[in-house]
Amino acid sequence: MLKLLAPCDKNTISLYIPENSTDMSFLSQWISHFASWISVRFMPSNIMKIAKSISEDDFRSLYRWLGKIAGVQYLSVRSYVTKLISLQKENVPLSLSIVHLILHAVETGYVGNNKEFSNLPIVDSSGTVHMRKFMGTVLLPASISKWPRYDLASSWHSHILCLSESYLNVPSFLKGRVRHDLIVKYLTEAMGALDIFDIKNPPDAPLTLRSHLGLSGEELTLFLAWLKNLWYIPPKLKMSLRESEWVKTVKHGTRKPSACFLDLGRWKGLLLAGDVPFVDTQCFGDLRSFESILKELGMVTQPGSSAAAAVAAHVELSLSSGIMQHSEGQNDIAKRWYAFLRSEMWMGWRNTTKPVIWIPDHSSSGTWRRIDECVIHDRKGLFHGTLCVLDLYYRNEEILSFFKDNVGVAETPNAGMHCLLWINWSERKTRITEEECQNMWSVIAEGWGLLKQKRSTELKAFYSKCRIPCTSSSTGAEQILLAQPSEILLSDDLVLTEAFQKAFPSLKFAWYPRNADASAWVDQLVQCYKDLGVNQISDVVTVESSKGLTRDMYFETGSIGRGVYRAILGYLTGTSCNVSYQTRKKMVRQLQNVKVCFMNDVGKVSYTLCIGGKVYSVDRDTNVRWEKTERTMYVRTRGFCNKARVAYEVTSELAKGMVGGERAELVNGLRDWLLMSLAVHFEDDAVKDLLCAYNMRLTLEDEALLQEGHIPVETVLFF
């Protein structure tokens, strides 16, 4: 009777009958190899020979009896492989050996094709056995693949499985019998293993290509060909390829595709290889067939808005990395940048805080400046030491237009810049020239309203640190000093100003421009001074009339009528005066409801003001005195004074009282004109004739003003 050779394991079959003699010949090569996992012994060959000599029916009866008594079974190559697969249990050597067994069986024809045992556990490059089917991409062993050159194991580690190199190491008895290509074919067909360029559906995961990989131009071109043939590139993969620095350029090292430019003959010298990162076609070869995929990765292939954005990004990279300081011909490079951005009407730097303006110096280098550090022109030369004046460095009008219109550089220094420069001067200087004052304060005054609206930092500094230009009789009008707002006065009333200046030459009065061209902005200058804390002399002076002056001393009273208004408006409307309607209206409004009182003796009047902690008093004794606070003009009676003297003083009082110190240059002309009008007693019709004779004409607004009901028709006779 036959005995069971190894009955200790129910899964171990100790005795087998081969289905055919060839199976026994094949399996005998592997039985010892798998002896650690399964013990296989065939019926002795002499017994098998005797058994085979009986009839087929008798043999089947014998087989059934042997199976029942001793557990003898048929064994084929397929059943042997199947039994081994059931025993794997994450055993690495067993899993690898089974694959080699199947490879041998396929090679010798015992297994029909590679897919017959396709659902096998997989051993990866770390030696881990994967029993379940892997849902990601299975890659061929690294030594026979291209994927390691692209660092897939690092980038896609959670999305790929790399087969173990041990799959390629067949048992010694198979060497030379199982070809290398057969192994690769089996891994591809049975396990679905791929190389990088065989992947049709890459994972939605970043793939970071870096220059340290040392990829050749040919390898990168193959990579582009693979990308081009993909029906869909997942977003994360595409973004990582756009932003990875793997494209070799002519003069800018390795850059990311979205920062590179491809020369396909469309640039026509607008940009050169040293200006921006042009792709090195000597490395890559002809890339025309890859234009679409390169554009998809962000590469710039022709002029346009995307090219402008890429140029701007390169400029910003240059300023942050210091590339320009080490580039040859950087000044010409900068000019081509800005000319190109202008041609594309790039607006992306509008009011940016980044220093995107290249300022060449006299050597081969330069510096980067912000918008607020530059102006296009500074024709007065005030800011050459504090601002970068771009027309000194760039002669091309298109480039200057780009800075002004597209970037937002001020064409000329604005009011805020002038404020800061004035503060700087105030801290360093004690005296300023007339020209410096006019150049500086004309801009500050004209931009004052906008400055107040913006409430800029420049304005805050100006309020706290500004010193006002002023003059005094002791130093002369030509010598302009600087003083705190609380130390000076606004000369809104020339009569009072002259009285105090004569008595106290050291008193300081705010500076006003003395040329007629400045009349256009003098009103804004007055408002500016007021906002800064300078007081008008008429607001701070107190008046004390002579004691004993009563109404009983008035011989008669009268009014200032339409003829006086017409004479004043007619003169101020002239183009040489350059006085706006609102200013003219403000001036003549001072005459509203003013009465004229004739007296034998006008008497003395005392004026007192306090400034800078000191009190100043003056007495005034004249033939004519206009007290604005009382809305009264006192005139000495005709029989008690020289008529010519009274005429001169009346017209002077009117001119000085209305015009004020801010337009002192108008006083003499207006006084002379009023003297001429006084000769016809300010009769309205006579004044009209005078205006006509001297080719003076009132505006419609002035005429409407004269028709207001509060203006008397007749003017008192001064003589």
Form type: rod-shaped
Point out poorly predicted stretches.
1-13
Mean pLDDT, to the nearest integer, reads 85
Rg over CA atoms, rounded to whole Å, is 52 Å
The portion of residues forming beta strands comes to 5-15%
Instruction: State the share of residues found in helices, binned by percent.
Output: 25-40%
Number of H/I helices: 27
Q: What spatial order of strands do you see in the largest sheet? A: 13-15-14-17
> Could you tell me how far the N terminus lies from the C terminus, measured between alpha carbons in angstroms?
169 Å
Structural class: alpha/beta
The tally of beta strands, per DSSP, is 25
Largest sheet: 4 strands, antiparallel
Furnish the topology, listing elements before pairings.
Blueprint: E1 16-18, H1 21-27, H2 45-53, H3 56-70, E2 73-75, H4 77-86, H5 92-108, E3 122-123, E4 129-130, E5 137-139, H6 152-155, E6 160-162, H7 180-191, H8 217-229, H9 235-243, E7 247-248, E8 254-255, H10 281-284, H11 291-296, H12 305-321, H13 330-343, E9 357-360, E10 366-369, E11 374-375, E12 388-389, H14 397-407, H15 415-428, E13 431-432, H16 434-446, H17 448-454, H18 457-465, E14 468-471, E15 480-483, E16 489-490, H19 494-503, E17 509-510, H20 519-531, E18 535-536, H21 537-540, E19 542-545, E20 554-559, H22 562-572, H23 581-588, E21 595-599, E22 604-611, E23 614-621, E24 624-627, E25 632-636, H24 643-659, H25 667-678, H26 684-693, H27 700-706
Parallel strand pairs: 1-2, 5-6, 11-12, 16-18, 21-25
Antiparallel strand pairs: 3-4, 7-8, 9-10, 13-15, 14-15, 14-17, 19-22, 20-21, 22-23, 24-25
